[in-house]
Amino acid sequence: MRDVAVVSFAYSNVARDSSHNETEMIVPVLQEAIAESGIAHNDIGFVCSGSLDYLQGGPFAFVAGLDAVGAWPPVRESHVEMDAAWALYEAWVAIQTGEVDSALVYGFGKSSPGDLHEIMTLQLDPYYVLPQWPSMVDLAALQACAFLEADGATEKDLAEVAARSQRNAQDNPNALRKGSITAADVLKQPVTHHPLRDADVFPITDGSAAVVIAAGELARKVSKRPAWIRGIEHRIEAHGLGVRDLTRSESTRAAGEAAGVASGNVDVAELHAQFSHEELILAEALGLDATKTSINPSGGALAANAVMSAGLVRIGEVAQRITNGEADRGVAHATSGPCLQQNLVCVLEGE
Amino acid sequence: MTDVFTARHVIEYPGGYTRSVGPVIGRFLTGLRDGRLLAVRLTDGRVLVPPTEYDPATSATVAAEGDHWIEVGPRGTVQSFTWVSQPRKGKHSLDKPFAFALIRPDGADTAILHVVDCGRADAIRVGSRVAPKWRPERTGSIADIEAWLPLGDGEEPEPAPLHVPADDEGPVTGITVPIRLEYELTAGIATTRYLKGLGEGRIIGGRSPSSDEVYAASRGTDPKSGEPTSIEVEVRDTGVITTFCVVNVPGLSELAPEIPYVSAQILLDGANNTFFGLIRGVAVDDVHMGQRVKAHWADELKPDHTSIQWFEPTGEPDADYDLYKDYL
After folding, report:
1. Does one domain contain both B22 and B103?
2. What is the CATH number of the domain that holds A216?
3. What's CA A210's distance to the chain center, in Å?
4. In a domain, A214, yes or no
5. What pLDDT digit, counting tens, does each position of B188-210 carry?
6. pLDDT score recorded for residue A61
7. So what's the pLDDT on residue B250?
8. Are residues B25 and B118 in the same domain?
9. Among A91, B126, B275, B303, which is 20 to 30 Å from B88 by CA?
């Protein structure tokens, strides 16, 4: 295995970007990540992106993103119709092949132009589930209901997660929902999707993120403290919600075990929990102890969740804390599919 | 910037999206049409409903025929639920508030996602007993169950109204799923600038500060470098046909002329990218690479693509191949 590290990270979120098209939205983030990487634009060996055509409502909409990359002379490029955390996985594999030493990974998406909760319904089983049009929030609420019933947790536990997210997010310029609030404040909100309240559900977010990763000596040369990827794994569960145990995340547990989460201290964890109960399920699956690990210090996805980049942001947030010396070792998690169907776990460490 | 253009956009598959369901799902849907809930017993003894073509745990094949097919329900138990206070018109089957629930039919080990019509949010809980309310007319779809209704202690489920098959009715092989999504798209700064130019009879492009190359109708970046084309540059409405296509297929768009017609890539004077346009005012057979053309503007200019109706030859001598060879 080649040592690969995150050497730069940039991202941007707004509630609704009504000024820029997607290409224009990506440009500043890509420029920042490339500039901060210390690697010349044309020396980056591979480019991989994550996006979702249905967010723009057009086929091959992701191709326009390449206008922001600067793809001349021709670049080695790939795309995943998933969160860009999976694009980072592909880039990491590309570096493992030995053919390239660095990669630019980016994800982007605007959730505001369409009805995101409805768009996500299209990823469901088209025979039994899609025709009934449950929204992604409806499905998350079914998982929350099952979790509370089985775990003995209460709506107050969910509110604690939601309130902590908003408090942590206060220092994060890219967070949309933030404030000095308590669980009691959250519990005063009406339940919108039993048992969830607005604060338990991620805010609609337009945004993008970019990361540059590099191998071995190159990473050491360009970064004062590279955030080394010690393990990166992803696992998926059945798509039928009725056949899964929604009260726990076996795929996260298996990915975390394979990535080596438990083989050292976890100073910081960024979990792609788009709903309050998901953070509790994920923390349990990864064996995290909230007294020893700072969970979602950025505010996490409850503070801002730009679909298709929010998972990559989790990796970037952990890497940045390692690079600036706040943490020595951390865990990043990204999710895709309904109710935490697919999960990616990345263990990062400084030297 | 507040005056960026937006556009309403709809994705819809007219008549719905048709899907073949295959023999396993088809058998389950045929069961629904008959008013029965069919399930399959997997090799480890678990009973799977609704059935899939594979065991979700082992991926082993689930055969479409055999005595592992059994009937479950119709009574079921709510495993989890959420309340939908505002049904989505044209999407949800009920036009009044309802619950989505995972319901485990009696005799099954898995749950089915469906609608519970229980009137009020507090009339459902985990463990509630429910039974299907069957539609009188059934087509072989998940919507053949209109909703599940709460079932009191000792209460008998309402049987499905008899399905009288048509003479030529066979097993269910397909379903139709209407899909409609609505968007409000943002053109962005560069595209808005370009479209406004069209409304003024001008073609606006841009270039980045570090490049001499001008891109007409760009999305806001120099696609070679990825840098913003922050400098606005007007290009000419004349140019050179770099390549073209004679279209013999009718009805490709509302703007399309009678076939045969020519669509072409045109290198506009002052631009470093090609521009799409129709070619008219010349016999189809006389269109050629290197031909000089000029935009024919609409009498009434609007900030959209209708302002340039087509390009037509200027009569100038053809351009040298070297001038446009890098744009093919």
Report:
1. yes
2. 3.40.47.10
3. 12
4. yes
5. 999 999 999 999 999 999 999 99
6. 81
7. 87
8. yes
9. B126
CA of A350 vs chain B CAs: smallest distance (Å): 31
Nearest Cα to Cα of residue B187 among B204, B172, B162: B204
Domain with B50, as residue range(s), is 17-177
Cα-Cα-Cα-Cα torsion B27, B29, B35, B37, nearest 10 degrees, comes to 70
For residue A133, give Cα distances in angstroms to A242, B52, B73, B319: 16, 20, 23, 57
Q: What is the pLDDT of residue B256?
A: 76
Q: Do B219 and A17 make contact, defined as CB atoms within 8 angstroms?
A: no
CB-closest option in B114, B141, B226 to A69: B226
Strands A102-110 vs A204-215: parallel, antiparallel or unpaired: antiparallel
pLDDT tens by residue, B210-231? 999 999 988 899 999 999 999 9
B306 close to B255: Cβ distance less than 8 angstroms: yes
In this predicted structure, the answer to whether residue B2 has a pLDDT above a threshold of 60 is no
With respect to residue A54, please indicate whether it lies within any of the assigned structural domains. yes
Report if residue B193 sits inside a domain: yes
Same domain flag for B213 and B306:
yes
Whether residue B9 is contained in a domain is answered as no
Q: Which residues contact A245 (CB under 8 A, 6 or more apart)?
A: none
Q: What is the pLDDT of residue B291?
A: 98
Query: What DSSP designation does B273 have?
Result: S
The alpha carbons of chain B give a radius of gyration, in whole angstroms, of 31
**Domain membership flag for residue A318:** no
Assess if residue B55 is contained within a domain.
yes
Q: How many domains is chain A partitioned into structurally?
A: 1
- Any chain B CB within 8 A of the CB of A127? yes
Coil, helix or strand at residue A155: helix
Name every chain A residue with its beta carbon within 8 A of the beta carbon of B50: 128, 240, 242
Look up tokens 């970037």; give the residue.
A316
Name residues 18-47 of chain A within 8 A of B (Cβ).
18-24, 27, 30-31, 41
d(CA B289, CA A191): 66
Measure B293 CA to nearest chain A CA, in Å.
Answer: 28
pLDDT for B1 beyond 50 = no
What are the per-10-residue average pLDDT scores of chain A (351 residues)? 97 95 95 97 96 92 88 93 98 98 98 96 96 97 97 94 98 97 98 97 98 97 97 95 96 98 97 98 97 98 98 98 98 98 98 92
Residue A104 lies in a domain: yes
Q: Would residue B1 count as lying in a domain?
A: no
- As given in the structure block, the two tokens for residue A268 are 């910081």
Task: List pLDDT tens digits, range B42-97.
Answer: 999 999 999 999 999 999 999 999 999 999 999 999 999 999 999 999 899 999 99
Residue in A67, A129, A149 closest to B113 by CB = A129
ipTM entry: 0.94
Closest alpha carbon within chain B to A137: B82
Q: Is A63 on the interface with B (CB under 8 A)?
A: no
Residues of chain A contacting B93 with CB distance shorter than 8 Å:
132
Instruction: Give the range of the structural domain holding residue A74, as residue numbers without chain letter.
Output: 4-114+204-227
Question: Do B220 and B196 share a structural domain?
Answer: yes
Inspect the interface and report whether the beta carbons of B142 and A54 lie closer than 8 Å.
Answer: no
B27 shares its domain with B127: yes
Q: What is the pLDDT of residue A50?
A: 97
Q: Any chain B CB within 8 A of the CB of A167?
A: no
